[in-house]
Amino acid sequence: MIPAQRMRRCSCPPLAWQEPVVTLKCVVMSHDPPKQLPIAPREEETAKAASVEPREGRREYPPVTVTQLVRWASRHVERRFSRVWVEGEISNLKRPSSGHLYFTLKDRHSQLAVVMFRSAAQRLQVEVEQGQSYRVHGKLTIYEPQGRFQLSAERVEAKGVGELLAAVERLKRKLDAEGLFDPAQKQALPALPCSIALVTSRTGAALRDILRVLETRWPVRVTLCPASVQGREAPLELCEAMRRADDLGADLIIVGRGGGSPEDLQAFNHERVARTLFALKTPTISAVGHEIDVTIADLVADLRAATPSAAAELAVPGRRELERRWQRATDQLARAASRRIERARDVLALRSGALASPARLIDRRRQLLDDRSAALQRALDRALRRRAGRLQALTLRLAQREPSATLARKRSDLDLLVAKLRARWQSAVQARRLALGRTVASLSALSPLAVLARGYSIVQDAEGVALREAGQTEVGARIGVRLHRGRLQARVEAVEPASGDDS
Predict the structure, then answer these.
(1) Overall pTM surpassing 0.90 (yes/no)
(2) Which of the 8 DSSP states describes residue 466?
């Protein structure tokens, strides 16, 4: 069958075997010039239908029943309009359990009831939806029980945008079955890209929107790979531009354009564009049209942005976001240092209980404290070196935009944080040392060795039991005397019980 568009452009009359394509207006047109339906049947046919003779001398027709009139009109319509194509918008769509379809086909001025029986409905190759325009093929009939003029549809095809959307839906199902939309296949976007490649029109609004947003956020190198975004050559140019962008070694690729009609966005629904986008090694963001426009390229890309401006916002973080990240990193460092000191304190307390000698206990605690202090100092130095290195890298990037004032503020904030961190660390170490000194003094005061150092001694019997009274031994018994330094062995020469004054 010759396509409808080609038949309308042809100036020669259609051949007899061609099926007509007409637009639903007030009447449905066929190839044969329509003859005006008579107001009443011819006199002979009416008389035959009514089984009466025409009255002589009068132009009136004999009455007929409603069934006879509707049946006659039905046969006449079916003979004159055996098969037609009708274009219009579907409304009042109903799908009863019988499997038949009932809907109304309408345009601005007229509407036509349509029925599609189950056998024809099961052969439909398009999804019939309310409010969409279609081309319906069938035969005109009159539903005799109600005397209603209707079209008995046999085939439905998408029309105009409907055909375009139907093709897009078929391609979506095909690519989805092949895994091009699988989230597991998508790449993660870089957190802080240094270079971005743009694939869009050189003169489009999308380019201006993306550059405008990037200028207000993180400084990044942008390379334009221009391509047509609509028209017959657009799919091929888009594929070539995406390959060039992939070969640049950029950190991220943004593919997009501004809004438009479904026909304008059709290049981004092309199968070749989808497969090229899927094969890119560089992470991609698709930003085609407005938020309500979803193309196949949006589904294939690693991330979809509602608009080109939104794509720029998703691609690079803002300065405030970087400040929040810096603050979080600083807080994490402080918490890590605090946890490390706390763990050192716990280990010190745990190990101190196993020490027998107060002097050894003090020495080990001092050594452990020194080790922990040195380790903490090394950790702080490493962290500060890493932060300093990162700061230097950020300084080099910011130098491209000369953010001298911002950099000076950040450096001042960093120095202040470092000073605060050192002060807190030194304060914590000093507090631990003071606590340790108090502990040493307390242990020294309670130690029996300190008493012996003042000139006292401990006397023990032969079994090593300390003697507190003279009555605990007897003359001639051997005793041991423990001094501050050394021991003595002696024998008791005399025992003098304690007097009342001695007690």
Answers:
(1) no
(2) B
